[in-house]
Amino acid sequence: MQALSHSAFLQALGFAILNSLWQMALLWIVMVLVNSTLRLSSHTRYKIALGAQFAGFTWFIITLQYYFQKCSVAI
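The structure corresponding to this sequence follows.
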């Protein structure tokens, strides 16, 4: 049985969590730029924020799958 620290899923999860920090920061910067340059209603800003959260989660899942495949081959 392989050690828990060498689990491909846990390694991929760690890489995905670290990458999600800059990914969500990038989405936040885009959202701030859009909100500051355009005069939008609060309802539209809410939809943009919700879309950014969904995009961040989707980006996290894609990153997790990418690193899981990469770590599975390496082990």
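The chain has two helices and no strands.
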